[in-house]
């Protein structure tokens, strides 16, 4: 049985930009590689970047959101995630948003978190 995987927003962002071809190729393989887990936060961050940085249309963003809900397991934000995020922030000095991503991955039972952050 393979490990349950959580994908962070920055990985998704590379699938929309080919400015860094190697990262683009790897990111595409990851996001298309199975029924992975993401969070509502990931959808929000990617959607915001698609609109602001890549100047995608509202329809393109809606297509992305619809695709996420059909392709991935979506972890909703909860009080438990925020509480775990606080303890992760205190212990590991993660940023606020990174601590929520890690908390979401942990509480959804993922063994692997793909992210460009938290190195």
Can you offer a commentary on this structure?
There is one protein chain. The protein is mainly α and 119 residues long. It has a single domain, classed as 5'-nuclease (Rossmann fold), CATH 3.40.50.1010. Helices cover 60% and strands 10% of the residues. It has six helices and four strands; from the N terminus they run E-H-H-E-H-H-E-H-H-E. The chain has helices spanning 9-15, 21-31, 40-52, 58-71, 79-92, 96-107; strands at 5-7, 37-39, 73-75, 112-114. The protein has a two-stranded parallel ribbon with strand order 1-4. Strands 2-3 form a two-stranded parallel ribbon. Helix 1 (9-15) packs across helix 2, helix 1 (9-15) packs across helix 3 and helix 3 packs antiparallel against helix 4 (58-71). The longest helix is centred in the middle third of the chain and has 14 residues, at 58-71. The radius of gyration is 14 Å and the shape is globular. InterPro entries: PIN-like_dom_sf (IPR029060), PIN_dom (IPR002716). This is Twitching motility protein PilT.
């Amino acid at each position: 049985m393979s490990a349950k995987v959580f994908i962070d927003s920055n990985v998704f962002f590379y699938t929309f930009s080919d400015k860094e071809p190697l990262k683009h190729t790897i990111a595409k393989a990851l996001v298309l590689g199975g029924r992975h887990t993401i969070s509502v936060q990931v959808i929000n961050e990617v959607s915001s970047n698609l609109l602001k940085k890549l100047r995608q249309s509202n329809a393109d963003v809606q297509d992305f959101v619809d695709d996420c809900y059909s392709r991935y397991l979506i972890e909703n934000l909860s009080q438990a995630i925020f509480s775990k995020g606080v303890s992760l922030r205190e212990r590991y000095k993660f940023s606020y948003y990174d601590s929520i991503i890690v908390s979401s991955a942990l509480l959804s039972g993922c063994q692997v978190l793909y992210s460009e952050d938290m190195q």
